[in-house]
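Quick one, tokens below. Sequence please?
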């Protein structure tokens, strides 16, 4: 493998670890289903539909803890994700966690939690499709 390629792969893996730390951790499918009081199949369907954040992790998918409240997904997150043109899982997670000037310095996830749903959705729709 070319050294530059190895460096890019290593940087990508470091960024993924940073995002997981920012997200609180990754839950497994068997942890998410009972937390949301739905079947694993329904969680998987939501992942495929892009209405829940899931990132490729090892053999399956990990579900970032930051998107969950005590017993549900952050309100309006599913709608905001559905409207977002970004499709790459890791990019969607990163965008949700990083503060945005268009949201007065809040991250998009913080904006949703604070009830700034329409503002967050407008900004999400403006993201370039990847």
């Amino acid at each position: 493998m070319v050294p530059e390629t190895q460096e890019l792969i290593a940087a990508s893996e470091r960024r993924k670890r940073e995002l997981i730390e920012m997200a609180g951790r990754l839950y497994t499918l068997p942890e998410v289903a009972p937390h949301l009081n739905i079947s694993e199949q329904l969680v998987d369907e939501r992942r495929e539909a892009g209405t829940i954040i899931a990132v490729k992790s090892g053999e399956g998918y990990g579900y970032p803890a930051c998107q969950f409240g005590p017993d549900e997904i952050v309100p309006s997150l599913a709608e905001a994700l559905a409207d977002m043109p970004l499709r790459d899982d890791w990019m969607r997670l990163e965008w949700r966690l990083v503060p945005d000037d268009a949201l007065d310095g809040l991250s998009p996830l913080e904006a949703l939690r604070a009830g700034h749903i329409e503002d967050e959705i407008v900004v999400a729709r403006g993201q370039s499709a990847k």
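The helical segments are 3-23, 29-36, 40-49, 77-83, 89-97, 108-113, 117-125. The CA atoms of residues 108 and 120 lie 6 Å apart.
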